[in-house]
Amino acid sequence: MIAETVCSAVSVAGLGIAAVTAYRKRFLRAVRIAAYSLVPVGLVMTGVVKWLAHTAFSPTAWAGFVVLALAWVLFMVTRAVERRTGGTRKERREAAKAAQRGAVAPAASAPSLGAGSSATPTTQPAVRPKVSEPAPRGAKSGDDFSDIEAILKKHGI
By C-alpha distance, which of 37, 30, 31, 32 is closest to 14? Predict the structure, then answer.
């Protein structure tokens, strides 16, 4: 009841301001003010104000909003975890099967920087591949990619 009275008063005040604006020969602005001032009355007549008033003071409605917020948080958490772990269960299972089939070359798992601070002193540093010198300007374009091909073969690609 109070909300309907407040909305009606706001609409009457807006229509009064629109009348004063029209008296000053600013008709476009007066029509726009009149349109805005009719919105609260329209909301009261359609029942939206009553619904909002009952929703705002209803503990059940607020509990519903809390449940919806909790559901949204759970969805976001599962998406973040899924992105961090590498996809869905099906994708992880397929990746594990591909790793078991030997999709990666055996030499690709060897360390490329040498022994460093490893636990076993018997490990030998990795052999560095011989770096070829840049091809002369008149060389074929196939010669330019030989070092790239060597790197790709080393990694089993």
Answer: 37
Identify which of 105, 124, 108 has the alpha carbon closest to the alpha carbon of residue 116: 124
The tens-digit pLDDT sequence of the chain (157 residues) is 788 899 999 999 999 999 999 999 999 999 999 999 999 999 999 998 888 888 888 888 888 889 989 999 999 998 888 788 766 777 778 888 887 776 555 555 555 565 555 555 555 555 565 655 555 555 555 567 888 888 888 888 8
Please report which helix (H) or strand (E) contains residue 64, including its range.
helix 59-85
Is the pTM for the entire model greater than 0.70? no
Token readout for 115 is 């022994």
